[in-house]
């Protein structure tokens, strides 16, 4: 659950010193963590010289990567180590609340918090200041959240444009140079044949459902694909029964969209929100913001013995519904259909199912990450004309999409076979 109910938001500033990040890099603590917790065992940096040239020029540097795995912020430590620099990164507040160790480690590595459920002026000002002074390169994930669909870029948030342009105006006014944005494509690739791993993981999930598979010989990539699609449909049906009362008919995309619409409409009606936003991300964010505001307002206004526990439980349910709507929306159409199915897409999907069922994915399959840097986009201090698309965001979206499309071809293809075949 993304909204933190244990305590009200309190800004976590970045650690400004160099000793801790240098210690972490010197002893390769991030490498060990990535191997044990994320299964990432190797890294390849491409076109790193583009990033290095921006550093040498003294630019204020914003790194804008795609965001498909929890490992993404940490793998950027590899190019930073090669260039012997440190980074700052903006991270969601809920990540600092998993444990005291997580809060300590994130902060010492240069992360600072952002309150996604409200206006966080302190976080925005910190990001602008970092870029304006070119203290260190700053990592901002323009998609906002992770989604485990490496080959598809989610809609980009406008906040990155506001931060970059504000810093560019401040830097230009002080005569200190320019601010640039580097699109960064992050792509994870399987190091070994994925079929044995996938077969073992799918058997665990099928057992959870009480399914018994017939003895059909050794599993193949085609069979893995069919079993994965079957389980996806089963998990969707269970959510339909939970929220709609029964499983629905039709193709999976239509059923997914119907459930998303129901989840958001139900929460919006209960919270008396006007769903003027058309995109799912904005509607999810509005529900989370309203829940967070009401929850902590009620706790402040009411003494503990008078708290309406039932209302607070309903607020938690509203957030759970919004989180589910966002999760469902991040399953792209045709991701596991047609001729573009790959081993990495199946691994991502299986791990997503595991996270949904058990809260944790199996990471025993070794992954290699490719990090590719694009040419810098110079940030203009001027806002685009009202009503027109931001050319800087269009350029960012275009470069990330192009790089990810090329990198997706490096994964091993899986022959597609219809489920009715």
Structure description:
This protein has 421 residues and is α/β, with parallel strands linked by helices. It has two domains: 19-191 and 366-408, Glycerol-3-phosphate (1)-acyltransferase (3-Layer(aba) Sandwich), CATH 3.40.1130.10; 195-358, no CATH class. Helix content is 50%, strand content 11%. The protein is built from 15 helices and eight strands. The chain has helices at residues 19-26, 29-38, 48-57, 72-75, 77-83, 100-108, 121-133, 159-173, 195-208, 221-244, 252-271, 280-301, 309-329, 343-358, 391-408; strands at residues 40-46, 60-65, 88-92, 111-114, 138-139, 179-190, 367-373, 377-378. Strands 1, 2, 3, 4, 5, 6, 7 and 8 form an eight-stranded mixed β-sheet that branches. The longest helix has 24 residues, at 221-244. The radius of gyration is 22 Å and the shape is globular. The protein starts with 18 loop residues before the first helix and ends in a 13-residue tail after the last helix. 40% of the residues are buried.
């Amino acid at each position: 659950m993304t909204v933190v109910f244990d305590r009200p938001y309190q800004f976590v500033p970045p650690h400004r010193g160099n000793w801790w990040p240098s210690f972490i890099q010197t002893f390769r603590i991030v490498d060990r963590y990535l191997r044990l917790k994320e299964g990432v065992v190797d890294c390849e940096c491409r076109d790193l010289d583009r990033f290095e040239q921006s550093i040498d020029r003294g630019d204020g540097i914003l790194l804008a990567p795609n965001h498909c795995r929890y490992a993404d912020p940490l793998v950027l430590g590899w190019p930073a180590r090669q260039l012997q620099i440190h980074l700052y990164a903006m991270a969601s507040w809920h990540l600092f609340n998993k444990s005291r160790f997580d809060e300590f480690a994130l902060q010492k590595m240069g992360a600072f918090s952002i309150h996604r459920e409200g206006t966080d002026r302190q976080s925005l000002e910190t990001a602008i200041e970092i870029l304006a002074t070119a203290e260190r390169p700053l990592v901002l994930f323009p998609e906002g959240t992770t989604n485990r669909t490496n080959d598809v870029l989610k809609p980009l948030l406008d906040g990155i444009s506001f931060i970059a342009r504000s810093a560019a105006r401040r830097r230009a006014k002080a005569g200190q140079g320019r601010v640039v944005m580097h699109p960064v494509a992050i792509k994870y690739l399987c190091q070994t044949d994925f079929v044995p791993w996938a077969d073992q993981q799918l058997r665990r999930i099928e057992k959870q459902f009480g399914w018994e598979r017939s003895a059909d010989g050794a599993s193949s990539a085609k069979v893995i694909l069919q079993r994965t699609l079957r389980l996806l449909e089963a998990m969707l049906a269970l959510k339909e029964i939970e929220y709609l009362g029964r499983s629905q008919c039709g193709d999976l995309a239509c059923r997914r969209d119907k459930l998303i619409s129901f989840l958001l409409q139900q929460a919006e009606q209960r919270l008396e929100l006007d769903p003027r936003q058309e995109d799912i991300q904005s509607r999810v964010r509005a529900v989370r913001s309203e829940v967070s505001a009401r929850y902590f307002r009620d706790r402040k206004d009411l003494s503990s013995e008078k708290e309406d526990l039932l209302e607070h439980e309903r607020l938690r349910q509203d957030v759970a519904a919004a989180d589910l709507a966002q999760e469902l929306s991040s399953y792209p159409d045709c991701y596991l259909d047609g001729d573009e199915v790959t081993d990495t897409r199946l691994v991502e999907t299986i791990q997503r199912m595991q996270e949904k069922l058990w809260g944790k994915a199996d990471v025993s399959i070794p992954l290699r990450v490719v990090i590719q840097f694009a040419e810098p986009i110079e940030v203009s201090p001027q806002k685009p004309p009202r009503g027109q698309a931001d050319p800087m965001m269009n350029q960012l979206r275009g470069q990330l999409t192009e790089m990810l499309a090329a990198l997706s071809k490096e994964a091993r293809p899986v022959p597609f076979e219809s489920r009715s075949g």
